Amino acid sequence: MGLIKLFLIGATGYLLAGLYDVAILYDKPLVRKLLYVGFFITAVPYPVIFFTRVSPLPGFAAWIVFPLVIPFALLLVYSVLVEIALHSGSSGKLYQGGTYKISRHPGFIWYTVINMLVSIYYWNYHVTMLFLGLTLCNLVLITVEDRILFPRMFDEYREYRRSTPFIL
To answer: Which residue ranges make up each domain of the chain?
Structure first.
């Protein structure tokens, strides 16, 4: 599958993820359930790249770079999918603990590191541009969430913005 198609698939996932947030804001539970798939669509380019491309790095270098992706992938899954559900007192309440104390969007940090590592692993301009594009899509999503959606969803979000950095 071409890299442009992979980008379009990933970008579509980010669009659906943004619409998922809008469905939450306007209390549309059925639509929200349908749009939740967007989060998983954003991940589609990764297995496609891993199964269709080979790293040009020498074996020892590949064995150093690739394993570094695993802890950041686990942090990403934890911050975005597990942490809030596990530690948030109630739905509809802004969670400000754990990784969300260091950043309003910790998943973006882990995601960016993963994309940098994968770009190094494949050491290819076109693959790097794909992951840079997906990182920018993620940045657009979290900026819209941070500036428009979350302040409407959570009364305490404006104060949270004053006390916690956007990314770092």
So the answer is: 3-163
